Amino acid sequence: MATLRLLAAGASAVGAGAVTTYFFTSDSPVLAEKVAHKPVKRPLPSREEQLKNLKEQLEYDVLIIGGGATGAGCALDACTRGLKTALIEGDDFASGTSSRSTKLIHGGVRYLQKAIMQVDVEQYKMVKEALHERAQMLHSAPHLAHPLPIMLPVYTWWQIPYYWFGIKMYDLVAGSKTVKSSYYLSKANALELFPMLKGDKLTGAIVYYDGQQDDARMNLAVALTASRLGATVVNHVSVVNLLKGRDRDGKTVLTGAHVRDEMTGEEWDVKAKAIINATGPFTDSIRKMDDQAVPEICCPSSGVHIVLPGYYSPDQMGLLDPATSDGRVIFFLPWQKQTIAGTTDLPCQVTHNPRPTEDEIMFILQEVKNYLNPDVEVRRGDVLSAWSGIRPLVSDPNKPNTQSLARNHIVHVSPTNLVTIAGGKWTTYRAMAEEAVDAAIQACRLEPLDVSQTDGMLLEGAHGWSPTMYIRLVQDFGLECEVAQHLAKSYGDRAFAVAKMASLTGKRWPIIGKKIHPEFPYIDAEIRYGCREYARTAIDMIARRLRLAFLNVQAANEALPGIIDIMAEELKWSPEEKKKQHKEASEFLANEMGQMVNRASRDKIPINLTKDEIQLYIKRFQIIDKDRKGYVSINDIRRGLKLFGDKDVPGEELHEILKEIDTNMNGQVELDEYLQMMSAIKSGHVAYSRFARMAEMEEAQHEKDILKKQISVERSGGGL
Ligand SMILES: Cc1cc2nc3c(=O)[nH]c(=O)nc-3n(C[C@H](O)[C@H](O)[C@H](O)COP(=O)(O)OP(=O)(O)OC[C@H]3O[C@@H](n4cnc5c(N)ncnc54)[C@H](O)[C@@H]3O)c2cc1C
């Protein structure tokens, strides 16, 4: 084992030395020449070391509030200019909108259409900038972002040249930053590539390319890169107030912030020459700390996504209708082996804990149905998780008419020098950050040592990454191939450091890497490594270091106790702390990741069965519950499966089957849960379950057994 690790360490060192331009193949010769990045300066400081810095530093040049994409981008930008930088995030990095996006890195096809139709230069520039940033992001973290082909279905002949022209313009505006060229597909070819698509009214399709990312891990990669380059970067510390004083001209200006460590309750002051408000939808709460009377600029709107099983879309092709009949955008995109579908757009309140509602989920499901062929039955029970994100739409306080919403991001400097950066989109986080830091330098007369270095800069994990890096993880460490691919994609060249922390499986193969849930490639070592990446709560871990909560709320719930045990070892949690973490994470899954609405949707279904059906199902239930306990246990299921020749059914599989019906998740299925399940199957709300099939078969077997007893061989003549 030691030899294996040595080999891997050596290999990783070689890999880390190489400057990567892998992503940009001959098809996309972008940015390869523009790799301008500072060398990694220090090992990643721990959160405790960073907290110490935050308490002891006499004065920072820049203090950034908010650790979403925008704030993390500002921190990276400021520290590459040699400014003494601090970033504080009240919850976790990406806990706000930045982990709840559609995960597209895009220039905005729709905006380009408007720019052309309305000869709108400002709109055109926005698209152009976003397309530059798209290429920049794909380059700076190729492990976390990749090009994704997206199909636009076309339903009338005249739309084909119209869409084709629009998409070709998109390629053209991207120029040398094009990801890959778009192309037209006949109806037959479109259905071959996207077999789930409804074919009856389809006339053809256009395929174009945008980028797709793991948004929370990308956000983290930006923050970690800033941390390595010298910035003080701390999560779970929030700003509770702003400090004011006088500058050298006697003008009242901001001089720092009063902050609170949300993990301990400790409060103190942090001094800074410039303060950047990068709090997304919370922008007005900070603006009001500066000036109570300031008018609000944020007009929050919630967008819900649902996650469906992977078979709703092909592995490597998304689908997007940019203009449904009522003017909305509908999409379903493959992501991390599942399918994301969305989205809604409804005015909402600003909250740290947005929740998806049943109406929003049903609305998306209904829309998805319109695009899929009848073979793919779209069922409520297929929703694996659902989450809501708040769009930080803002009006521009620099303009006299503050009623209308800004199309792009805004940068505003208040009379006391609070620099607010808000709006925009994930794709343009770097450019937005550069603009905000420029404004801070100018307003607060900072003296940077350098210009911004972030355009083309490689982020944490990108330096030694290559598309085939995962093979070394398999060969050198003895990791399962799927796990190695996942580690390489999530951590880039840091995957070697993660693999080194993996425990032995005790099996011949894989040698290391115990999975924390049988259906997902996440392993134990990621929990330990996640604590070094500043995860401090179980929610940080299941939602943002791993993406399990976003992918499958039920699986996240099942993996939770094991995850908490490992975190407790790493972070020295007491039994009480473990209980608290479990409770908070369970509530998060129930409320913010759609588990509660999933369960409620099944509970809401009335038991819609005839008297005869109820009798039948009661009989089946009693056949399985041989000991008349009043509930069915995992052992009953095991016995049932054995009856049908499934000799050794693995524990996970049994667990899976039990999960299908056990709505209160106590490991026991009672009669009312079983009837509810059968009713939901009958009404099409949930898929036909393996348990239901097993009950059916067990009943048939039972009938046969009775018949055998009744008709003896002597009487029947031995079958003759
Ligand atoms: C449904 C939806 C889909 C989207 N899809 C895409 C897409 O596909 N592509 C794309 O480019 N863009 C997309 N966007 C837009 C993109 O997600 C956002 O523009 C971006 O994430 C905003 O980042 P942010 O850092 O400004 O805000 P946030 O990510 O919300 O970060 C703000 C942070 O500030 C912190 N904070 C608040 N108050 C305090 C305080 N007092 N002290 C300390 N910290 C504080 C919060 O905890 C939060 O983490 C989408 C948005 C939504 C809602």
From TrEMBL:
Its main location: mitochondrion. PROSITE patterns: EF_HAND_1, EF_HAND_2, FAD_G3PDH_1, FAD_G3PDH_2. GO terms for biological process: glycerol-3-phosphate metabolic process. GO terms for molecular function: calcium ion binding; glycerol-3-phosphate dehydrogenase (quinone) activity. Its EC number is 1.1.5.3. It is found in: Mitochondrion. It comes from the Eukaryota. Keywords: Calcium, FAD, Flavoprotein, Metal-binding, Mitochondrion, Oxidoreductase, Repeat, Signal, Transit peptide. It holds the Pfam family EF-hand_7. Residues 1-18 form the signal peptide. GO terms for cellular component: mitochondrion. InterPro entries: DAO_C (IPR031656), DAO_C_sf (IPR038299), EF-hand-dom_pair (IPR011992), EF_Hand_1_Ca_BS (IPR018247), EF_hand_dom (IPR002048), FAD-dep_OxRdtase (IPR006076), FAD/NAD-bd_sf (IPR036188), G3P_DH_FAD-dep (IPR000447). Residues 612-647, 649-684 form the EF-hand domain. Its cofactor is FAD. Pathway: Polyol metabolism; glycerol degradation. Belongs to the FAD-dependent glycerol-3-phosphate dehydrogenase family. This is Glycerol-3-phosphate dehydrogenase. It comes from Fopius arisanus. The gene is GPD2_1.
